[in-house]
Amino acid sequence: MHPFLKKATMSTLESSLMKSKFRGCLLGSLIGDCLGAPFEGDVVTAGDKIVIQRYFDKLQDSTFKAPFKQYTDDTAMCKSVAKFLIDKPEPDYKFLAKLFVTEYFNEPKRGYGENVIEVFRKLKNTKFEDVYKPAREQFFGSGSYGNGGAMRIAPVSLYFYNQYHSMVEVAKNVTKITHSNILGINGALLQCLAVHQALLSDPENSIDPKKFCTELSTKLKDIEEVDEDNLDNINNIYHDKLKTVQKLLQKEPSDDLDEEILENLGNGIRAHESVPTAIYCFLRAQNEIPGIETENSFRRTIQYAITLGGDTDTIACMAGAIAGAYLGEDAINSVLAKHCEFNKEILEMAENLFTARESIPIK
Ligand code: F2R
Ligand code: MG
Ligand code: MG
Description:
This is ADP-ribosylhydrolase ARH3. This protein is mostly helical. The chain contains 18 helices and no strands.
């Protein structure tokens, strides 16, 4: 067991820190989604970065009143994963598939992509007979490598924080209901490991980015799905990207470097073009970034992720989950959080997830 975790399970003080990390993680994921959503698909210019700075300043001003920023599919699916873990002591994937489908048909206008909607329709029409079959049929049988598996995985990292093998098995199965391409699955695994590693890191000690990335790569190597043909060097994609993250972190932040990040890591809807980018945002935001004026590293993570443009809701959501898991709820500005739809409910879910977790003996 990780020494910090061992300590954490031993006294009330550390148990309260773990609870704060559960709450911070899900709240961080929600904030990234809600605040990133208005910019999804945008190309962000230097001028837009100033607009985004003002947007955050305004949202943090307690006198500023505005309608809720609405959450999207990222949070809708994350809610289902959390409920699946809270409600059933043993994983029931048919129950989870039904939760995804019910959530979608109740609120279809949450920004879901066309293809995943086809999976939901097939699941419903086949009465959930084989919960993995519709996903396997996507993209002429190659399965999806979208980031929809990774964007919702954080509750699995939390719930199984001291049951590593269960975490890995459940993360794979939760993903395969909609994403069966190995890049989609491995992307979700990488995000799951990143949240887990951040959760087990002491927020009073600074993160060593090199160690953070090499540990992720080593752990991923052990658990990832492998493509036997390895066409286009598919098996190396995430490992190469984690090396690139480390290299880019050694450079001074600038607008030119942001261009390099987009070229080398990406900011798209594909898992391999967004999960490593979210990890990069979290690590980069451990230190000051020019043009992002805040002392708070949680806000810096989310704001920076949004300034990269592209799949802003999802990259900010994944980076926010990692940052929240590391820092805990206290590091998140409550005025900022209150602008997000579902902010109270997500904290209640985190609390229920924590309680459900604590009632299960450590194996
Ligand atoms: N879908 C969006 N945003 C754009 C649409 C917004 C909406 N129309 C609106 O305005 O309301 N955002 C959300 O989708 C992303 C997660 O996507 P997910 O769940 O992974 O979907 P999908 O369809 O499985 O994959 C996404 C795209 O990736 C490409 N792709 C995936 N696998 C492929 C393969 N094997 N071959 C070729 N292409 C593949 C496709 O272009 C898919 O459409 C998040 O950003 C979330 O916020
Ligand atoms: Mg979305
Ligand atoms: Mg998105």
